[in-house]
Amino acid sequence: MVTIDIETDDGQREILRRMMLIRAFDNEAGDRFADGEIPGFVHLYIGEEAVGVGACSALEPDDYITSTHRGHGHCIAKGLETDKMMAELYGKREGYCNGKGGSMHIADVDAGMLGANGIVGAGPPLATGAALSAAQKGEDRVALAFFGDGAVAQGQVHEAINLASTWGLPAIFLVENNKFGEGTPVEKQHNLENLSETAEAYDIPGFTVNGMDVTAVYEAVEAARERAVNGDGPTFIEADTYRYRGHFEGDHQPYRDDDDIEAWQRRCPIDAFANRLVDAGVLTEDEVDELRAAAEAEIEDAAAFAENATDPDPSEAYEDMYDVSVPELSTYAGGSLRADGGSTTDQ
Amino acid sequence: MSTDTSTSNVSGTESMTVREAIREAMREELARDEDVFLMGEDVGLFGGVFDVSDGLLADFSEDRIRDTPISEAGFLGAGVGAAATGSRPIVEIMFSDFLGVSMEQTMNQMAKMRYMFGGKTEMPITIRTTEGGGMGAASQHSGTVHTWFAHFPGLIAVAPGTPAAAKGLLKSAIRSNDPVFFFENKMIYEQTGEVPTDPDFTLPIGEASVERTGEDVTVIATQRLVGESLDAAEELSDQVSVEVIDLRSLYPLDTETIVASLEKTGRVVVADESPLSYGVHAEVVTRLVENGFYSLDAPPERVGVPDTHIPFSPSLEQEVLPDAADVTAAIERLA
Ligand SMILES: Cc1ncc(C[n+]2csc(CCOP(=O)(O)OP(=O)(O)O)c2C)c(N)n1
Ligand SMILES: [Mg+2]
Question: What is the CATH number of domain B13-196?
Fold first, then answer.
């Protein structure tokens, strides 16, 4: 069973709700970052919601995904809880990684979410590995890697796709072509019209779909999943999309014009889908507004949860390094930087 | 060591930040030698994620301030190939954590080519990269990995702690015919200091610098911890006289300067942001033990990251990052 059935009215409402939740989450994260409440960097997914939600809804709940530095949307689409996510962004103990990871490393392995990732292009090999373990264990699970147009230039992405193709693994490689890798436009990174053309080199199907249309993404991933579980190997999907915010919050964006952003904002994936549901009589305009208000309220609660959550105790810095107990770390945790724990220098 | 550089007679100095010092070093060397070029992710139009190369694209061509795709193995490797064939590339790896992606070209090509080919190739490449925690950037953007490169035969590794060292060493690195890794700590880009204005000012690779003289304890520091150690020394100046050395060059390492200081003070703290085990500290202490064992009045103290990765949460990050307080505590244990 797919995670969310787009054929049903309930499914469509849920898909819309999840996109709204992502939008609200990232708006809030951007604001809270600007206020100095969230440390580090945040990379927002605003504008790209249809890709994550379309893809994860068409997967089954047990399937795996790997994510990127721009991972909040993938997490919410995969069903992660927004309060624990926000707490992680705040570096709190109640967060998904107990505060150790932050925005760029949110993970929930039990939910099949194998981590946001700070290393561009590092997700696809992990997805190939998850697909390999599923195949070896005879499980009906697939692994989907989200990665950016910039990541397509990484050697390890090529190696991962080649392995998955050669071994016929149940993997899906989904490129989010949002037109930039940081400040560098896609034309300066690749000499290809469509990034999905790379699929030819691996002899796997490759498609470019409208990434502002959640249905288009959903259908492409549903078909790719079908191939994967039938033993027909991986599929390469390029979602044509756009990021509305800077690469990271605080990016002064010397590389593009407001006009370009506005043109893509007119294609907002959330508005487009909401309008379609209204036209089809699935929702009234008021119900759309209610759904949005409820999503925003959930995120306000998540932010309040994060604000009131607890800072990790400094001693937790020494935890989670190894399964075994390492004497060096116990010493350091005890407050000495001397491996022998020595505090006296009297000879 | 044999670089074609030496400290020049300096007419005057100017106050600048570490960021400006690095940018000016590149600007001067790009102007001085057409074979020099800079490449890396977002170094041109964007000006570098830490604004270090901001403005260089306007002064030089896109050919020489070259934005690359996100392909560290490819473009660092291309730098190796270009260096072997007569160019002098400066390759920027945005965060040192990404050096893992390009490790093969570093270990097996860049570091070994001259030796394997019987000395028939030069390798005039400079790799600039950013290290260090302190900005909540979490484990994959905060590492201090210079030990690996100082350890690996065939590579030179420098890690300046002041604007003057940054400028002088980077210019020497670019002029050097050997592969030089230039490690910038991202927390000290805004740190200011006096820098010689002479466009031929360079500093020899392989020399440490005594930044403050003292009699009782020597602190041998690198990068951000040079400034933190100077602060600690100042703070303690009523009770103890502390000498602070900026190691500057990790390999080759200036054994002479550090041993001379040990012979004077008899007590040493080594402060470097790499993880403690098998870090720069270990090599420095070994050199001191080998060359100055009988001058040691107390076991050396190490200040570094306690063998963890850099965690995200500020309360955890602060716990593991060494700072002036850790240096102070180490000095107090010795004094
Ligand atoms: C190996 C590596 N190189 C460089 C970076 C710095 N960096 C972070 S995101 C990014 C751009 C990524 O572009 P893309 O893959 O298109 O993803 P997008 O940000 O557009 O979602 C870069 C260069 C990194 N994190 N990892
Ligand atoms: Mg992109």
Answer: 3.40.50.970
ipTM over 0.85: yes
Question: Closest ligand to A73 CA?
Answer: 1
Pocket of ligand 1 (CB under 6 A): A 68-70, 118-120, 148-151, 176, 178, 180-182, 247; B 41, 70, 72, 94, 98, 101
Output the six-digit token pair for A85.
Answer: 């996510």
Helices B324-334 and B224-235 sit at what angle, rounded to 10 degrees? 50
Tell me if B313 and A91 make a contact (CB, 8 A cut-off): yes
Q: Does B72 qualify as catalytic in the annotation?
A: yes
pLDDT of residue A337: 66
3-state DSSP assignment of residue A146: strand
Residue B312's closest chain A neighbor by CA? A100
Q: Are strands B268-275 and B301-305 parallel, antiparallel or unpaired?
A: parallel
Contacts of B140 in chain A (CB under 8 A): 104-105, 117-119
Does pLDDT of A3 surpass 50? yes
Residues of B (177-206) whose Cβ lies below 8 Å from A: none
> Which helix (DSSP H) or strand (DSSP E) does residue B15 occupy?
strand B13-17
pLDDT at B42: 97
* CA A149/CA A188 separation, integer angstroms: 11
pLDDT category at A340 given cuts 50, 70, 90 is: low
User: Is the distance from CB of B270 to CB of B302 less than 8 angstroms?
Assistant: yes
Tokens in use for B145? 């990995």
Asked if A337's CB is within 8 angstroms of B276's CB, the reply is: yes
pLDDT above 80 (res A347): no
CA distance linking residue A78 with residue A65, whole number of Å: 8
Span between the terminal Cα atoms of chain A, in Å: 71
Contacts of B306 in chain A (CB under 8 A): 317-318, 328-329, 332-333, 337
Taking alpha carbons only, the member of A66, A29, A31 closest to residue A45 is A29
Q: For chain B, where do the domains classified as CATH 3.40.50.970 start and end? A: 13-196
Q: Which two tokens stand for residue A149?
A: 């147009």
State how far the alpha carbon of A236 is from the alpha carbons of A117, A127, A128, A195, B145, in Å.
Answer: 20, 13, 13, 9, 35
- In the residue annotation, B151 being an active-site residue is answered as no
Pick the CATH number of B209-334 from 1.10.10.10, 2.20.25.90, 3.10.20.30, 3.40.50.920: 3.40.50.920
DSSP B171-222: HHHHH-SS-EEEEEEGGGTT-EEEEE--TT----TT--EEEE--SSEEEEE-
pLDDT at A334: 84
Tell the CATH superfamily of the A9-312 domain: Thiamin diphosphate (ThDP)-binding fold, Pyr/PP domains (3.40.50.970)
From the alpha carbon of A122, which atom of ligand 1 is closest? 1
* Domains of chain A, residue spans: 9-312, 318-347
d(CA A49, CA A27): 12
